[in-house]
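User: Round two. Same drill as before: sequence, then structure, for each protein.

Assistant: Same drill it is. First protein:
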Amino acid sequence: MTENNLPGRILVIDDDQALCELLVEDLSRRKHQVSSALKVDQARELLHREEVDVVLTDLNMPGTSGIDFCAELQENRPDLPVVIMTAFGSLETAIAALRAGAYDFVTKPVDLDLLSITLNRALQHRHLQKKVRLLKDQIRRQQPDDELLGESAVLQQVKKQILRIADLNTSVLISGESGTGKELVARALHRQSKRREGPFVAINCAALPGNLLESELFGHVRGAFTDARENRKGLFLEADGGTLLLDEIAELPLTLQPKLLRVLEDHKVRPLGSTREIACDVRVLASSHRNLSEAVSNHLFRSDLFYRLNVIQLDLPPLRERGNDILLLALAFIKQLSQRFGKSVTGLAQPVAAILLAYHWPGNVRELHNVIERALALSCHDQLTVEDLPEQVRHPAGSAPLPVSLVDQGTILPLEEMERRYIHQVLEQLDGNRTLAARLLGVDRKTLYRKLKTD
């Protein structure tokens, strides 16, 4: 569109009714949707009810001035351009308007054609902002969360679920074994949601005794108990406008479960010792490594609270079911921890990959991180070796020997043949992923392709 025909929704504010009507008529003729107000209070009400692209306001009005209203909008609606009209075309007035956050200003008597050009520039600015915000949102949605590293089909399914449910306000129950990354998923849900500008607050329900947990969640007033020397907001109010993660929800005492249920249903919190309820806007996520259905059957968890939390369930796969993600995570941890330790470790020695893939990982991603951290602390080479790994990973109890058929019975093979067989073993373990195989073998892809061509 050209500068003269970009339509938009414009709010005109001027206590001069005749001028106001003239501006509305002229701007409507130029294909804009125009609303008007004679006072700032009326304008505030209109902005609550209607979507507006540009505000055109007079400078001098009874009560709140145009510059004061511009500053107010800049604080609450920084994406909304404001054009100020003034009969005083001095440099000081222009500077004051721009300092208040005005997009531009025009002088009275108003030149309608010049005003149209100014408003169209403001509209273009507004549309450009929307376009940039939309592109950022699309990029954000294409990349759910960098911390959820992995290419396995089961993890990709989790990422798709996160994108589908992120913008919902419903509760989500995140289940999975300890160490699978339940809090990372909760943070990803928060960052993908409309609440991402609000706080993310997490608490482990198993970390505090019942009386302290109640105060921590719901807050207290001064004098509610012996050590309550001042009022304190609970985590529900701390998370107002954002997301609250209740980690290890299965450990929540039965005595607290009815109060939590009440908050989830009424969206109001009553601090300990208070007679007043406070409204709160919080999305609640819960996580547990225990089977909550079994806890309900065993009368250890209220069924009504379970159904309220389990509106949507998101199950995380254990690390042992994620295949090559084990190696991707190991390499990412090596890069991250090498920088922290000031070491130049760049990868894994050849046999280490097979050991990591064969291990059961009962502690999941958390255990893998700890194993890599320990190995890096002990390593004296530029790659992690088998000797750097802890004993339980190298020789797990009850595990079978790793299949390594690099020699024929009674025959010593040439080094080139042993290398060829080993490359094929690594590729077989990595489902043919040559890029990852090259990284693990410490060669570039061209070298790997050349060695494969010699078969």
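Second protein:
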Amino acid sequence: MEERFIRVQRTARFHVLGSPATARELWIVVHGYGQLARYFLNQFAGLSPDLCIVAPEGLSRFYLDPGHTRVGATWMTREDRLHEIDDHVAYLDQMTRELLQEAPPGTVVNVLGFSQGVATVSRWALRGLTRFDRLVLWAGNLPPELDRDTLRAWQGLVVDLVLGDQDELMDREALLGAAQRLEAAGVDHRHHIYHGGHKLDALTLQRLLDPR
């Protein structure tokens, strides 16, 4: 059996709160496993209208329940993972480039990844062409292939590590391990613990994105 690959064009979906034309900051927020972008983006409603918040959706959708009534999306699996990483990095770069064409020159780009989205945005930050000012990694693990030398590319970024104290999928040791990896690479970082489980926390979200 011979394995072959071809590159095809496909349509990616994303949702937007606010306008790139008037925003002081552009936030790209990347959902976790099994979520859809529009529901994820709902959690950012109510933040400053000076922010444009954009939620891209993973390229692979699937049914979440036996009755095929609920749909979620994922960014990648272990199957053919390198091509999937290349595809979503190219997608996120193209989406952001087109949004910045609508925005004033010098508009700041920040990124938040939640759960599976942490690995997605981490790889994007290292393999993509988009330059960020801030990177928020919420309740997810740094990809294992990002060693100290690789992570040094993040010097100059501000990285926030966020975790709920009752998170059932990630523990504080994992967050501290990520902090140690960033420290060893000389990357400026902060960590935040809030009371709650594996979900976004509204107060912490406002403090990080919209500290009015």
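The longest strand covers residues 108-114.

User: Perfect.
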